[in-house]
Write the structure tokens for this entry.
Amino acid sequence: MADKRISLITGGSGALGSAICLALAREGNDIAFTFHRRKAEADALADRIRNMGRRVLAGAADARSPEAVEAFCRRAEEHFGRVDVLVNNIGMIQAVPFALLEPEDWDRLMAVNLKSMFLFSKALLRGMVRRRRGVILNIGSIGGHRMLDVPVHYAASKAAVTGFTLSLAREVARYGIRVSEICPGLIDEGIGGNVPPRQMAEYSRYCAAGRPGRPGEVAEAVAFMASDRAAYINAQKIIVDGGL
Ligand SMILES: NC(=O)c1ccc[n+]([C@@H]2O[C@H](COP(=O)([O-])OP(=O)(O)OC[C@H]3O[C@@H](n4cnc5c(N)ncnc54)[C@H](OP(=O)(O)O)[C@@H]3O)[C@@H](O)[C@H]2O)c1
């Protein structure tokens, strides 16, 4: 793949998403990213990327709307001519005990965390298949793979990221497209920034690094996996959890 890549990051306005945008911009990528509600954060991020000398396109899109996802992906492809790298990062959590979980809660979280991955990947794969190149990186969570204090619907959505990744990787490998998962542990901002101090302390006690991670530490793994330096790495789950 040529050095100058076009990367599309979903949920760029969030903690991990903005760090991923900046890491990929530093690596020479032009950046398209989505936001949902936080326009001010999105505008500030777009300015920072522009100041790094990269081209940038930011757009509001509710991940639950197939039309909005399709429209932003088409816009990005028209603006930049193509998209080489997709980072499926959008996510939400809802702290609710299982007994109080309503069907609507389940559906909303699955739509944001999981169906969005399907929608963005489908919209951008057509171009990647045509060009016979591309990288898709899905942000999972250690919460989907360990017996941790996370809501059941969140854990289920994140465990599903692994199956989604493996099956898609198998299907599109023949077109020169790599698909892997980046699986963070507890990070000290974004969704992780809201966990109670007791839970944060417990994580730090069991984690070999003795602390939660930082968004930039996840972004470094994404930057590497998006690059040709990872050309022979496919269908993997890259765990960034400080050692649990
Ligand atoms: N932080 C952690 O400890 C941690 C650990 C493991 C995995 N993760 C995963 O990392 C990813 C990013 O999380 P984060 O911690 O950076 O959280 P965050 O700061 O809350 O960011 C979430 C992002 O998702 C977007 N989003 C939420 N609902 C949306 C919707 N309906 N439509 C479109 N976009 C929507 C938000 O947009 P707006 O802000 O513009 O509304 C924001 O850009 C998630 O997949 C999360 O599960 C995080």
Notes: The helical segments are 15-26, 39-51, 66-80, 103-131, 152-172, 197-206, 215-226. DSSP finds seven helices and seven strands in the chain. The chain has a mean pLDDT of 97.
